[in-house]
Amino acid sequence: MANQNHAVRERYSAAAQKSEPALCCPVSYSLEFLKAIPDEIQEKDYGCGDPSPYLNPGETVVDLGSGGGKLSYIAAQIVGAKGQVIGVDFNADMLALARKYQTEMARKLGYANTDFRCGKIQDLSLNLELLAERLKGTAIESPDDWLAVQSIADVLRTEEPLVASNSVDCVISNCVLNLVDSDSRKTMFREIFRVLKAGGRIAISDIVSDEDVPVEMQRDGHLWSGCISGAWREDRFLQEFIDAGFQGLQIAKLEQEPWQVVNGIEFRSMTVVAIKPETGGCPERNQAVVYRGPFESVIDDDGHSYQRGQRTAVCERTYRTLQSGPFASHFIGFEPQEPNASLGCGTRDCC
């Protein structure tokens, strides 16, 4: 894992100084948003997809692995003056590039709504620059010194988190999750889930494979830093989000042609969208939905079954979910003629 992390740091630091076109696959963005972004940022952008179409005005957005800031500055234009974009990256050279143009971008847009923070995407609680400030002049020469550093980091995570819990409308990322070492991936998905508000969502573009990547390829630092050998198998990538608690997963885009084929394994870009479900009680308001089709029946992530054309009673939380986001076009909602104030049984499965 140390080899993987070192390879990623070194390669992306170099790519912040000099463009490396082959570092990831080409991506087409809306020209409307590119016009305002400086050439240097565009030349040193590395990604595999465009999650920006899934953003809305006024939202708070976190861009994981924001790099030189291209996707963050696109998002800044979409969310507008009432929104906020938080770019998170731990590479000092990439952060310097993104921050270099903050004043210029604010002048062009007429507002300043970007904030680039130093941290690891598998630890969205720890602000590494704040930690560095607290450690100035501190010598680490013994196990006790190291434990003291850990204690300071824990305090910062609690009192001054890099990204607060339940504070974000949407988390986006462009070809970065695959760069995180294997041991930290479960934590990374939990962190993404943590920072989102209930009902918040993800729009993640990343590289996936059609087969499992052999261990010997994973140990190749060049393949790993090139967004190849860290790829998840397609179905397992989706399962990571499910295991973290996300619902309503959709493959928004999956390239039919592979970006690269290495040792007979196909690597291609996938964009996934999903939501963080609401929690708490399950009020019953006598609401119902009708599944439009085209399938005879479907089952949601809570295990509820819907037959095409058949009215199905649902609790208020399920009703809100099915009348919003990716579900809205598939379900017709029916409110009761007379409002029902019953609180139901207060459990997730009372429907």
Major sheet size, sense and barrel closure: 9 strands, mixed
The percentage of residues in β strands lies in: 15-25%
Mean pLDDT: 90
Query: What is the gyration radius calculated from CA atoms?
Result: 22 Å
Computed structural class: alpha/beta
User: What shape does the CA trace take?
Assistant: globular
Number of strands: 14
Which H/E pattern describes the elements?
A: HHHEHEHHEHHEHEHHEHEEEEEEEHE
First and last CA, distance: 45 Å
Number of helices: 13
Low-pLDDT segments: 345-351
Helix percent reads: 25-40%
Write structural notes for this entry.
The protein has 351 residues and is of the alpha/beta class. Helices cover 32% and strands 23% of the residues. Strands 1, 2, 3, 4, 5, 6, 7, 8 and 9 form a nine-stranded mixed β-sheet that branches. Strand 4 (168-174), helix 9 and strand 5 (196-209) form a beta-alpha-beta unit. Helix 1 runs parallel beside helix 5.
Q: Notable features of this structure?
A:
single chain; 351 residues; 9-stranded mixed β-sheet; 32% helix; disordered C terminus
